[in-house]
């Protein structure tokens, strides 16, 4: 029998770098809040996926009214977020009973494809973990005291979400004390003693972080519409 599959979508952040009064996960692109695009992407992958949505408690009412306004009725289990991404993920994981696979995904990565999600579950089933990553397109330099030094970019990967794990493994890893230097789930699992399997993510799976990301996301969704045959 297939392992139960969960999507843990974290949207408990403040969006400081976006600088918008409306939390960035609620900003509309192509007429729909970013977070709804993200949830739709997981339901496009599977109609039986169980979605856990982490939001700041003060935003629960905004979410409910946006759902009413957009007639959005995808089932989600709501959970209150924490002060950091680590704490929000940990709270979300607590909503999962029993074993299975969980894809942890940033609520503000609305352009993730069903193919990437599918790959993450298939690989995690075999390897225990599956973390989306892409190659660097630009050169990088390390900032050092008194200057900078060129680095070999082929030795680095840009890490995205989904980051998918066996539930028991990632829950155990999240029992560790929080370390602010660990900025993603793969780092937490690695600290817990697990090796990490990367797979090819996608350049369009951007994390909406600063205002120009909204321009890209809007244009991307428009281009998908025109690309579809009539
Ligand atoms: N306490 C937090 C902080 C972040 N996140 C989520 O983690 C994802 C990645 O974080 P990031 O892009 O850094 O979002 P923010 O923390 O909202 O942005 P900023 O750092 O600019 O404030 C986002 O979906 C964000 O909502 C979360 O669930 N809980
Ligand atoms: C998890 C993540 O999306 C991987 O790239 C990223 O680390 C989250 O963003 P943050 O700015 O570190 O919160």
TrEMBL record:
CDD domains per UniProt: CDP-ME_synthetase
Looking up InterPro entries in the UniProt record yields:
IspD, IspD/TarI, IspD/TarI_cytidylyltransf_bact, Nucleotide-diphossugar_trans
> What EC numbers are recorded for this enzyme?
2.7.7.60
SUPFAM superfamilies named among the record's database cross-references: Nucleotide-diphospho-sugar transferases (SSF53448)
Catalyzes what? Answer: 2-C-methyl-D-erythritol 4-phosphate + CTP + H(+) = 4-CDP-2-C-methyl-D-erythritol + diphosphate
One biological process term in Gene Ontology: isopentenyl diphosphate biosynthetic process, methylerythritol 4-phosphate pathway
Q: Which GO terms describe its molecular function?
A: 2-C-methyl-D-erythritol 4-phosphate cytidylyltransferase activity
Which UniProt key words apply to this protein? Answer: Isoprene biosynthesis, Nucleotidyltransferase, Transferase
Instruction: Name the residues annotated as site: Positions MEP for the nucleophilic attack.
Output: 153, 207
> What Gene3D superfamilies does the record point to?
Spore Coat Polysaccharide Biosynthesis Protein SpsA, Chain A (3.90.550.10)
Site (Transition state stabilizer): give the residues: 17, 24
Record Pfam families: IspD (PF01128)
Q: In which pathway does it act?
A: Isoprenoid biosynthesis; isopentenyl diphosphate biosynthesis via DXP pathway; isopentenyl diphosphate from 1-deoxy-D-xylulose 5-phosphate: step 2/6
Similarity remark = Belongs to the IspD/TarI cytidylyltransferase family. IspD subfamily.
Query: Record's HAMAP family?
Result: IspD
Among NCBIfam families, the record links this protein to: ispD, PRK00155.2-3
As for what it does, the entry says: Catalyzes the formation of 4-diphosphocytidyl-2-C-methyl-D-erythritol from CTP and 2-C-methyl-D-erythritol 4-phosphate (MEP).
Q: Which PANTHER family does the annotation name? A: 2-C-METHYL-D-ERYTHRITOL 4-PHOSPHATE CYTIDYLYLTRANSFERASE, CHLOROPLASTIC
Protein name as it appears in the record: 2-C-methyl-D-erythritol 4-phosphate cytidylyltransferase
Native species of this protein?
Pseudochryseolinea flava
The record lists the lineage as:
Bacteria, Pseudomonadati, Bacteroidota, Cytophagia, Cytophagales
């Amino acid at each position: 029998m297939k392992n139960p599959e969960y999507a843990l979508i974290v949207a408990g952040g403040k969006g400081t770098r976006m600088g918008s009064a409306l939390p960035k996960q609620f900003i509309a692109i192509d007429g729909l809040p970013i977070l709804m695009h993200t949830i739709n992407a997981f339901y496009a992958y599977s109609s039986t996926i169980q979605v856990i949505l982490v939001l700041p408690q003060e935003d629960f009412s905004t979410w409910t009214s946006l759902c009413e306004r957009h007639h959005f009725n995808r089932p989600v289990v709501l959970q209150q977020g924490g002060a950091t991404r680590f704490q929000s993920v940990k709270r979300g994981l607590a909503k999962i009973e029993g074993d299975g696979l969980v894809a942890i995904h940033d609520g503000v990565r609305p352009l993730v494809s069903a193919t990437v999600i599918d790959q993450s579950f298939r690989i995690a089933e075999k390897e225990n973990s599956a973390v989306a990553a892409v190659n660097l397109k630009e050169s990088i330099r390390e900032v050092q005291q008194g200057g900078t030094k060129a680095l070999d970019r082929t030795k680095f990967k840009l890490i995205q979400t989904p980051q998918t794990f066996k539930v028991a493994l990632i829950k155990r890893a999240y029992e560790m004390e929080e370390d602010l230097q660990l900025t993603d789930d793969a780092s937490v699992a690695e600290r817990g003693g697990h090796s990490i399997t990367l797979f090819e993510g996608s350049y369009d799976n951007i994390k909406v972080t600063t205002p120009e990301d909204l321009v890209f996301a809007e244009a991307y969704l428009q281009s998908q519409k025109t690309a579809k045959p009539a």
